[in-house]
Design brief:
CATH topology: Rossmann fold
Shape: globular
CATH superfamily: Alpha/Beta hydrolase fold, catalytic domain
Number of strands: 8
Number of domains: 1
CATH class: Alpha Beta
Radius of gyration: 19 Å
Structural class: alpha/beta
Distance between the termini: 28 Å
Helix content: 40-55%
CATH architecture: 3-Layer(aba) Sandwich
Length: about 350
């Protein structure tokens, strides 16, 4: 099993690697993917067979406390669950530093080709966060250059990171409250997977707006609330319902881990997460790295609403000439996909992803 070191204390992240693509062995693109809550990196394994034909090398990381990666220790969990914003901020900064250390180790260890042509050709790393994986990706974009002490490491990351993909980002990762219709709804260990992997048929006009936003449409949250679908469609059934139980147990984590660190991470201070999001958009670390936001048209309501809010904020700030120095960000709608596009349509998913990184 491959492991990447993230500090000098023996802390490691487990990862899976598709290997150097035979179709382009010297100037390929490397795609590093962070999973979301409950599901580990195994949820992305179906895309591995299609890496080579897309001239890509795929690295799937298991985050801390997930299978095979180093569990959190008592002090780390204490900071996470403290309710103290400074301690929680310290917890997040430590995870950002670990991710930066892992990436620089990977680049050197595997001789990853650098991004030498401004994203026009191959080379470089595209960093992808799925769902709550963006609870780490957005802080990484906001904080990396200030939390990493090694200037050589920071220089490596500046030269190698070509783009960041926020794939169906969870609203909590952006510090955005849920719509009133789902406020107070609690997802348990047993209900989480069927809810997030269901198919929802939102008002087509809202999905069209996300693809091409204008100031004179969906001007207030109430309009968006009314356009969202809160009850899943029965056709098809949730993705998780169609995964054999033995396989499902391998690509998800047990209840103990869900309660110990997953729920506390999702329930971290919304103010902190929103601040990280704003700093990431304003430039934060690696301001020349562009962001691509991918939203699936049949994903769950809280994802659509969160993307709408960030998109609206960017649009209004652009009109008001605020945040003029913000990083380049683009929004894309993947039609007919639910929150698990990579599992349902892996070949199409990797082809679409390769087209925007």
């Amino acid at each position: 099993m491959p492991f990447g070191p993230v500090d000098s204390k023996g802390t490691e992240l487990y990862y899976e690697d598709s290997g150097v693509p035979a179709t382009m062995p010297t100037n390929y693109k490397t795609i590093v993917i962070l999973h979301g809550t409950l599901f580990n990196c195994g949820i992305f394994r179906p895309i591995i067979p299609f890496a080579d034909e897309n001239a890509s090398r795929i690295i799937l990381i298991n985050q801390r406390d997930y299978r095979h990666s180093t569990p959190f220790n008592k002090d780390e969990l204490k900071g996470l669950k403290s309710g103290d914003k400074d301690k929680q901020d310290g917890f997040v900064r430590d995870r950002v530093r670990e991710l930066g250390n892992f990436l620089t180790w990977l680049i050197v260890q595997e001789d990853i080709p650098a991004n030498r042509s401004g994203n026009v050709d191959g080379g470089g790393i595209a960093l992808v966060g799925w769902s709550c994986g963006n609870c780490l990706i957005l802080p990484f974009l906001a904080l990396t250059e200030e939390v990493m002490d090694d200037n050589e490491q920071k220089d490596i990351l500046r030269r190698y990171i070509r783009s960041v993909i926020l794939y169906d980002p969870a609203n909590v990762a952006m510090g955005i409250a849920v719509p009133p219709a789902v406020s107070g709804t609690t997802m348990t260990y047993d209900t989480f997977a069927p809810i997030v992997s269901s198919y929802c048929d939102h008002d087509p006009s809202l999905i069209d707006y996300l693809e091409s936003p204008t100031m004179n449409k969906f001007t207030d949250d109430e309009q968006v609330y009314n356009a969202l679908a809160y009850t899943p469609s029965s056709d098809p059934n949730p993705t998780s319902d169609r995964i054999p139980s033995e396989l499902f147990s391998k690509i998800t984590e047990p209840l103990e881990v869900f309660d110990r660190s997953m729920v506390p991470t999702v329930c971290l201070s919304p103010e902190l997460y929103h601040n990280y999001c704003i700093r990431a958009i304003q430039g934060g670390a690696f301001p020349n790295v562009r962001v691509e936001v991918m939203v699936c048209s049949r994903t769950i309501a809280v994802v659509v609403f969160g993307v709408y809010k960030i998109q609206r904020m960017l649009l209004e700030n652009q009109i008001l000439k605020k945040m003029e120095n913000r990083r380049q960000a683009s929004f894309h709608v993947w039609r007919d996909f639910n929150h698990c596009a990579h599992w349902e349509e892996p070949e199409k998913f990797i082809r679409l992803l390769s087209g925007v990184i």
